């Protein structure tokens, strides 16, 4: 039996080598001849998200069996393009030198005989060891790979485990095959699960109704049934409630219908109920009842008591997330796909990495993911890694014991990870994390343990990590500023938020939203944007993205004016009523003007000004340098209301 197996192995290796010779593969090649650009890779990862989500837990489990033994695991798509890599630092460094990174193609055509490419070519599990690889660069390794098939039997990817040949055992390929089979089962279960969603919702509704108030209604809002908890919570008798409309009982009925008609979920939203004696706040979840034609027929409303004490404690400590996906504005197709993907991974325990330029809404997405997942009742702790001094970041993240250093608080102090236990920690500007601190963060991710400064005690924490950066972490790794193993552990479930200039169809929607919300907050009237102005806004590149757009709208509302083009040689503004014949937006000038206004308001205090502008201190320093602003002139400013005028701005 073993002899027959060896003959078969030699056969597929021999066939592969023949193919490589016919394709003219150079045996001295070091890395794949096809590696995707950043933009192409982002599109590829977006396209293969379902496979990555299904494979991620089993890929982690497979790596967990061999962790610390110089192995790494790779997931590719059906073309051999690497989607994800995790492994030990030592062998990852070598793989990184060979550009075995996401976006690199491992099929035979581009890198010769290897387990991933040959598994695709032969459509079966294979193991390729040492000199069986066609190129010499891979002769130190043994690769074991197995195809992954969808429920219809079509190959959609490959799972691989690679290590140094002397460390690979005979059962390695079997482990990979078992993991690939588990992924296939997961995909099959997911397919069946989607067909059973309606039945599942009905069962969950019955279960949820036991400790909560539940009522059903038709699409006109007429209440058709109500359980005993509703009468107790609202103070009405059952026969009274059955004569009422839902919109008479609680505020937001139209929003419930709109959400369910658009096939979105409406879960744990705070609403005000017009009870018999007074207005009360409850948490509302609404579920659709669908007929055979997939039409919405009825709605089930489930009311629960708001957990006031817990929410209040988290808000006092600033450990809460306020944004949800239904508050995110946009209709761009790629942006909507990002929202859909973020919802799918909201319950995942794995690390999420949000990438995108400054001002694209990375924290908004992080908060929305937290609120959409099963940790939404727990703490959400945000940490700006770029705003914490290097000498304080360890104590900030991991805490300290009493007497750990001079000035340490009596009784010690918990770190952000302890505060986030059970919930989510958001590590913004993760690319600014000092290199010497990165092993500590890696330990938390891999082992779920933190140790306070000055203590040997290990504290277990159950924290889901969401990281964000506007840096290219792959380049940071190449420059030695970021650890490879940490990068791959963070980049398990990546989300790339495109800049505003790539979703310009959303600009009018965002302007309307900001115009409405800011005008209400400032108690000022909204300003109409003329057509010619809107056209210019659509052509602008928006280097500050959504944050810049929000600041522009706030400035327009504050001044009730739209700025002139600087080419008109004026430092004033022109009232909207003059129809703005000569005006076109000079947004860089607007940004300069608004920064001067805020710096003057806070008398040159960088921290307060950055917080008011909703940008990082480093970002504000860059803008101050860009506009050549001397902050010392603001230190002795008197009352702002007597010194600032939009027609008398310093330049």
UniProtKB/TrEMBL annotation:
Q: By its UniProt entry, which Gene3D superfamilies does this protein fall under?
A: 1.10.8.60, 3.30.450.40, Homeodomain-like, P-loop containing nucleotide triphosphate hydrolases, PAS domain
What InterPro entries does the database record attribute to this sequence?
AAA+_ATPase, AAA_lid_NorR, GAF, GAF-like_dom_sf, Homeodomain-like_sf, HTH_Fis, P-loop_NTPase, PAS
SUPFAM superfamilies, A to Z: GAF domain-like (SSF55781), Homeodomain-like (SSF46689), P-loop containing nucleoside triphosphate hydrolases (SSF52540), PYP-like sensor domain (PAS domain) (SSF55785)
Keyword check for Nucleus, yes or no.
no
Name the UniProt key words of this record, in alphabetical order: ATP-binding, DNA-binding, Nucleotide-binding, Transcription, Transcription regulation
Q: Give a GO molecular function annotation for the protein.
A: sequence-specific DNA binding
| Domain Sigma-54 factor interaction span(s) in chain numbering | 328-558
One Pfam family from the record: AAA_lid_14
Annotated GO biological process: regulation of DNA-templated transcription
Presence of keyword Nucleotide-binding: yes
- Taking every annotated instance into account, which residue ranges of this chain make up the domain PAS? 199-242
Q: Which range is the signal sequence, renumbered to this chain? A: none
Protein name, UniProt field: PAS domain S-box-containing protein
Q: Which organism is it from?
A: Anaerosolibacter carboniphilus
Q: What is the lineage of its organism?
A: Bacteria, Bacillati, Bacillota, Clostridia, Peptostreptococcales
């Amino acid at each position: 039996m073993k002899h027959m197996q060896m003959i078969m192995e030699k056969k597929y290796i021999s066939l592969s080598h023949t193919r490589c010779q016919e394709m003219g593969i150079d045996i001295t090649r070091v890395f794949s001849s096809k590696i995707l650009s950043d933009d192409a890779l982002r599109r590829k990862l977006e396209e293969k998200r379902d496979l990555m989500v299904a494979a991620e837990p089993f890929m982690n489990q497979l790596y967990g069996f061999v962790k610390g033994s110089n192995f790494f695991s790779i997931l590719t798509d059906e073309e051999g393009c690497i989607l994800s890599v995790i492994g030990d630092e030592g062998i990852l460094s070598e793989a990184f030198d060979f550009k075995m990174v996401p976006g690199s193609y491992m099929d035979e055509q581009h890198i010769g005989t290897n387990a991933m490419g040959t598994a695709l070519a032969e459509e079966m599990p294979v193991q390729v060891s040492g000199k069986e690889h066609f190129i010499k660069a891979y002769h130190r390794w043994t690769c074991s790979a197995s195809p992954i098939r969808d429920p219809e039997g079509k190959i959609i990817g490959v799972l691989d485990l690679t290590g140094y040949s002397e460390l690979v055992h005979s059962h390695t390929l079997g482990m990979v095959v078992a993991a690939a089979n588990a992924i296939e089962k997961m995909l099959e279960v997911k397919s069946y699960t989607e067909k059973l969603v309606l039945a599942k919702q009905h069962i969950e509704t019955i279960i949820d109704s036991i400790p909560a108030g539940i009522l059903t209604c038709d699409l006109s809002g007429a209440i058709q049934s109500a359980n005993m908890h509703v009468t107790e919570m609202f103070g009405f008798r059952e026969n009274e409630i059955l004569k009422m409309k839902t919109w008479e009982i609680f505020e937001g009925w139209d929003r419930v219908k709109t959400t369910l008609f658009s096939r979105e979920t409406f879960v744990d939203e705070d609403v005000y109920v017009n009870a018999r004696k007074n207005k009360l706040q409850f948490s509302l979840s609404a579920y659709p009842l669908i007929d055979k034609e997939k039409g919405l027929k009825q709605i089930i409303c489930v009311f629960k008591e708001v957990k006031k004490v817990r929410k209040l404690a988290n808000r006092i400590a600033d450990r809460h997330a306020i944004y949800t996906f239904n508050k995110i504005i946009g209709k761009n197709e790629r942006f909507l796909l990002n929202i859909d993907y973020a919802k799918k991974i909201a319950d995942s325990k794995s690390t999420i990495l949000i990438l995108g330029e400054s001002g694209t809404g990375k924290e908004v997405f992080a908060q929305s993911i937290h609120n959409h997942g099963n940790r939404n009742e727990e703490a959400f702790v945000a940490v700006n890694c770029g705003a914490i001094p290097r000498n304080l970041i360890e104590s900030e993240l991991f805490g300290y014991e009493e007497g750990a250093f001079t000035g340490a608080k009596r009784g010690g102090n918990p770190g952000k990870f302890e505060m986030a236990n059970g919930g989510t920690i958001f590590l913004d500007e993760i690319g600014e994390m000092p290199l010497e601190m990165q092993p500590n963060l890696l330990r938390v991710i891999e082992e779920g343990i933190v140790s306070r400064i000055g203590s040997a005690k290990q504290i277990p924490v159950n924290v889901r990590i969401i990281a964000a950066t506007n840096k290219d972490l792959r380049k940071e790794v190449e420059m030695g500023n970021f650890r490879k193993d940490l990068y791959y552990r963070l980049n398990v479930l990546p989300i790339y938020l495109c800049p505003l200039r790539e979703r310009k169809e959303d600009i009018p929607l965002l302007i309307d939203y900001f115009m409405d919300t800011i005008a209400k907050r400032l108690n000022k009237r909204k300003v109409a944007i003329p057509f010619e102005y809107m056209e210019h806004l659509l052509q602008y590149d928006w280097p500050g993205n959504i944050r810049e757009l929000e600041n522009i709208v706030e400035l327009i509302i504050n001044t009730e004016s739209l700025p002139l083009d600087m080419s008109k040689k004026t430092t004033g503004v022109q009232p909207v009523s003059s129809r703005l014949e000569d005006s076109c937006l000079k947004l860089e000038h607007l940004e300069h003007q608004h920064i001067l206004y805020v710096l003057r308001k806070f008398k040159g205090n960088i921290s307060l000004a950055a917080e008011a502008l909703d940008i990082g201190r480093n970002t504000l320093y860059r803008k101050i340098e860009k506009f050549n602003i001397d902050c010392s002139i603001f230190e002795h400013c008197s009352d702002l209301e007597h010194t600032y005028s939009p027609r008398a701005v310093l330049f």
